[in-house]
Amino acid sequence: MLYERWKQIARDHRAEIALRDFSRGQQWTFGELAALAEKGVSDRRPLLYPQGMSSDFVVSVLTSWREGKVVCPLETGQDPPAVPVPAAPVVHLKTTSASTRAPRLVAFTAAQLAADAENILQTMGLRPDWPNLGVISLAHSYGFSNLVLPLLLHAIPLMLLNSALPERLRAAASAAPALTLAAVPALWRAWHEANAIPHNVRLAISAGAPLPLPLEQEIFQQTGLKLHNFYGATECGGIAYDTTDTPRTHPSCVGAAMKSVMLTAGAAGCLEVRSAAVGETYWPEPDPSLERGCYRTSDLVELRDGQVFLCGRVSDQINVAGRKVSPDTIEGALLTHPSIDDCIVFGVPSADAGRTEDIVACVAAQPSLTGETLRQFLLLQLPAWQIPRNWWFVDSLTTNERGKRSRAELRKRYLER
Q: Is the pLDDT of residue 216 over 90?
């Protein structure tokens, strides 16, 4: 199904530029890319592992489709998982980001991959005359569904850049009169601070981690560019997207449901996602949270006025003397302070009998800021019991290559201090 669709795309657009690889200084038309895929070296392994940020990744995917192999994209240097090869109709394995637990593999059929790409195209309005400038990992679900599949199944050209440095971004962006740029919040912040966001970006997408409202508003005020918040999951692809032309007004809003995606609040208020793009199962160990076209998340949610509001994760809730608060609530309030660049909140065991946990706020802010100043600031917005007891000031909050941050890792580092 996938390779036949690709061959039709290549025939219909054979003379148009399909792929540019800036690291190699090369480009291919759809016809040339199709010829390259036909010459791809045959591999006896039933499971193939595309890696990296180059044309080799794309050719490897096409070769796998041609030979009927299962594709399992990996980050550069990542070891192949020791799992059995899934049987048809599974054609693809995605690795979860491990932001809440150990990485897991999710199995997809061709129809499910195609449905996710179609939902993204219809919801976001990707256009052939606005090629994707690819700087995010192609192995991650975000990059694969937003960059690779639109190229191969919908003729959306892709320009690959293996560096996100501001000067490299500027140079690559000049190769097209208009473009689409999908990135993570940490990259948008870095480019904004370096005044490096290309002027020819027509569609700006942010996903992989929560998009701070102050960052979205500041970029819009200074450049007029709207960052469209995109919320998805490895298990089901795109979930919600902010289609509006102006910045959001509430930090927990992630937009409206994607086209052809149905959202409901299930048990304990957690989001349930149903669509043709939902993965087949976890592999090799199934789980009731992912089955029969439904993905039951651990994200607490409110659905109102056609919009999706995230209220934190069940596993992240902090227990303060029997009362539970989501870290997202405190983070959202903190991020309204003009001197705070970023923050993350978590709970640690309390030394006070009966309190259960203490709230810790890890904050990247201007040096003059103090915990007492922030405490007084939060008292105007939150109940006293939700105010952090401990403040940990850092220069910046690091993320992994997918733009993810781990509360568990920060909690571990804090307790080791």
A: yes
Instruction: Tell me the pLDDT tens digit for each residue of 247-270.
Output: 999 988 999 999 999 999 997 899
HSE toward the beta carbon, residue 84, CA cutoff 13 A: 7
CA-CA distance, 41 to 31, in Å (whole number)? 18
The tokens 């097209």 sit on which residue? 176
* Upstream peptide bond of 284 is cis (omega within 30 degrees of 0): yes
pTM above 0.85, yes or no: no
CB 17 within 8 A of CB 32: no
Cβ(342)–Cβ(395) below 8 Å? no
Percent of the chain scored above 90 by pLDDT? 77
What pLDDT, in 10s, does the model give residues 125-160? 999 999 999 999 999 999 999 999 999 999 999 999
Locate the DSSP E strands across 124-226: 132-134, 158-160, 179-183, 201-206
Tokens of 259: 């086209």
Q: Could you tell me the fold of the domain covering 2-312?
A: Rossmann fold (3.40.50)
Identity (one letter) of the amino acid at 53?
Answer: M
pLDDT in tens, 103-115: 799 999 999 999 9
How many whole angstroms separate alpha carbon 150 and alpha carbon 141?
A: 13
Q: Tell me if 219 sits within 8 A of 197, measured CB to CB.
A: yes
What does each C-alpha distance from 187 to 61, 144, 191, 259, 322 come to in angstroms?
Answer: 26, 18, 6, 27, 38
The rounded distance, in Å, linking the Cα atoms of 402 and 76 is 12
Helices 55-67 and 2-12: angle between axes, nearest 10 degrees: 120
Planar angle of CA 101, 182, 153, nearest 5 degrees: 95
Cβ-contact 109, 280 below 8 angstroms: yes
Look up residue 385 and give its DSSP letter.
G
The domain locations on the chain are: 2-312, 317-416
What dotted CATH number matches 317-416? 3.30.300.30
CA distances from 30 to 50, 64, 144 (A): 20, 18, 18
Cα torsion 80, 82, 84, 87: sign: negative
Mean pLDDT throughout 283-311?
A: 94
Distance in angstroms (rounded) separating the CA atoms of residues 413 and 400: 16
Contact call for residues 279 and 296 (beta carbons, < 8 A): no
